[in-house]
Amino acid sequence: MTTTSTSPGRSFADAPGSGKTVALFAACANDVMFPQAPIATTRLLERLGCRVVFPKKQTCCGQPLVNTGYYDETVPIVRNFAKAFEGYDYVVAPSGSCVGAVRHQHQMLADHAKDPGLRRDVDAVVAATFDISEFLVDVLGVTDVGAYFPHVVTYHPTCHSLRVAHVGDKPMRLLQAVRGITIKDLPDADRCCGFGGTFALKNPDVSVAMAADKARNVASTGAEYLVAGDNLCLLNISGVLGRQQSGIRPIHLVEVLASTEEES
Amino acid sequence: MSKKLPVVTSRGGTVEPPRLTPAPPPGRLIDSPRFPAQAKVELGNPVQRKNLHHAMTTIRDKRARVAGELDNWEDLRLAGEAIKNRTLRHLDTYLVQLEENLTAAGTEVHWARDAEEANRIIVGLVEASLGETREVVKIKSMATQEIDMNEALEEAGIAAWETDLAELIVQLGHDRPSHILVPAIHRNRSEVREIFNAEMGTYGRPAPEGLDTEPKNLAGAARLHLREKFLRSKVAISGANFMVADTGTLVIVESEGNGRMCLTLADTLISVVGIEKIVPSVEDLEVFLQLLPRSSTGERMNPYTSMWTGPASGDGPQTMHVVLIDNGRTQVLSDPKGREALRCIRCSACINVCPVYEKVGGHAYGSVYPGPIGAVLTPQLRGVTSAVDASLPYASTLCGACFDVCPVRIPLPDLLVHMRHKVVEGKKAKGGVHTESAIMKATGRMFSHPRLWAAAVNAGALGGKALTGRVKHFGPLPWPLSKWTNARDVPIPPTESFRAWYARTHHEDGSLK
Amino acid sequence: MSTEARDAILGRVRAALADLPPLTPEADTPVAWTYGQPRALDNILDQFEDRIIDYRAAFERCTPATLAEHVVGALQTYGTASVVLPSGLPRSISDAVAAAGLEVRLDEPQLTRIELDATSAVVTTCAVAAAETGTIMLDHGPGQGRRALSLVPDVHVCIVLADQVVSDVPEAVARIAPAIRERRPITWISGGSATSDIELSRVEGVHGPRTLHVLLVDGS
To answer: Is C207–B223 a contact, with Cβ atoms under 8 angstroms apart?
Structure first.
């Protein structure tokens, strides 16, 4: 692909996403703290020809509660999620972790609620939910998304994207197709950064010790940017990197993919 | 029975009688501090951290290499899972079959509901078989750790000698195991030398003069120290890795040969085994004896495996007992989800790959089973009422590395979450107000009412606007956010939320404004 | 003996499993595994050799005609003074060992633990071997002796016949299973005794024989 597009929504006729409507699941933390990631998702998908809608009833995937053990409190969140995204062919999120939670936990919670109707709704939504990297590679069939990012980066595959959502090597294939990019191998890349949701609050000392290891490995690559598909993992690692004044900037995978030559 | 009683002194006071074996640290494991508190203590031990990092990295790499050699590794895992599921779902049938075949082969079978009953049986059996030397030699066994058998024997005036090198280091070091496979992994070679030099002479053959820190020479010192104990042993105590229901065969997988010494040289053999350690048939061993060594020590095969089916004429112990212990296992079995943890074959792959374990080591878990399997199994075996047990399911980031390496595909992350749910249910049942449940309830309400959430998002952006231009990052914040910010910077919230941006730039149907 | 604990535990197990359908184990939980299958290896004997050497054990090939001299050669390499020869070992071996001037000890009547501990070496045959894992299996039949014989002396010379070597564990378990069903004790040996208990640094030779010397007898 050689065409690049700068303004959101200006799609090209033979674009891979042409005719597809995507319901964007921004993920709660992105919505309030890291809007750049869902903005980049919107711009990228529109550049590839998709229509991107934002169902306003969406809130959270429920992961912070269910992973702390609060099942009953999560069931209404699952119900809300199924309702908010009902009827869409594609629900796409810039978060391997949130997609993993939807895919791996919503059915269990519907069963916990002993609600077959909810289970049916959840089954439908789960089948339609994708991490942005999966949607690009598996549904749109692209790895070269026309991005340009002339920087040295290293990529941290977040645990839930890797081992719950199972995005595999898709993020790396997308990154490798970015023009101008230099990708440095991250030592012990698949080791956890120590975030773990409430783990960081319940076990702060261990969490920081793990994040420090990850930060050390990131710093050892000499990269300008640390790339990952989950902003909360980036927040955790970059929090330590920032305290160390390393100068390495965190960036979401989709922000790299949305970057174009014209912008830079 | 010569139970040791306190000695009354001339001044009327009492003193503890002298011990036969080195005293372990005082206190019971179940009274250990909560995981986060003990983890903090362990993190402060730089030597241990270095030892653990080195050891865990090595063993992880070895496991990955030898598991990767077999093109049917995933099929083996699926078979291991299925065979163990079959066993557990029909455990009554297999237990009865096992008992029949053990008995037919000449092994006496005993049943113990809990640790206390198991120890009473074992002490009785040992008393009946001892010679003049009131001691037994032991093969490393998690079941005997779990019931704290050594201390029960010590109480009865019987010395139980650990013969696995690492267990010997732990025992002589007045220490506790920190790992189920390599119990002294928290110690380095210099520490081992110090322990051997200081303690071996008190309990038998002293360490050789001028012992250095070469592992080969340290192992040589253990060989000499233990050989005299093997050669005079009358009674040996073991666990078992597998019990074969259709033959009554017990299987022990080991490396050093201490197991073979115990299994071969003693006159009486007592095997203490959890009721879940059954495989239905001899043929099933082909699956587990591929899965276990590769997952455990990262070897294609462990150096020695022993199988025995009752006493063999003219070869080894002529009196054999098996003590089948429940000790909480039927409680685990009664939970349709939790029972998956009973598939565990104690390989330690989940521990070796766990990033949390690598930081803190096994002592932080207050349990004989540390790491992910300990965090799901121990609170099921002991319940979630003690402070440490209620904290264990949270001792994980849920990173999922443990499931990927588990040879019997125990869904450890799911079980950790399941146990967290049990902890929460336990708190709710007790009643009262908890900060955490209040926060979770409020959060749940907000996330299930889109308008409440939208308002919160707007408030967040307002906060961001108020701080614009003043700071780039938050430094340390007050509690509870201090738990996060004590070591990490936090960016200030953006001035515009995503939903505000979308509403400003898009119509609801996705077309651009 | 009271059956109170037994009955209580079996009762607890049955109560714990009350949620499950009343099916046979086989119908309830299928196991998708075909037992006893060979593993595809380029050359079984080469693989076996590779694995034995990988365990840092000694390995030599010989023919039936040269076996006895290889046994003697191995024993002399390790400076053996005395050797225990289990009954059932080929006569040619015991003759050659005796002719070389080594002290031969027989286990009839059984040697005491102390006598065995003071014996330098043992020579045994085996029952089965698995190439992929370099595992030698003893069922302690003729030529293999009781278990202590291949454990207490410090040198173990083990004779493996080429047709005893199969590809991997499943084939080997299938071959050794009849001996287990006959209630014979079984010992699997994969290299010499070893430990990695100190800093995970592997040390060969702890309690078992510190030297394992494998002689593969290939008739071809």
So the answer is: yes
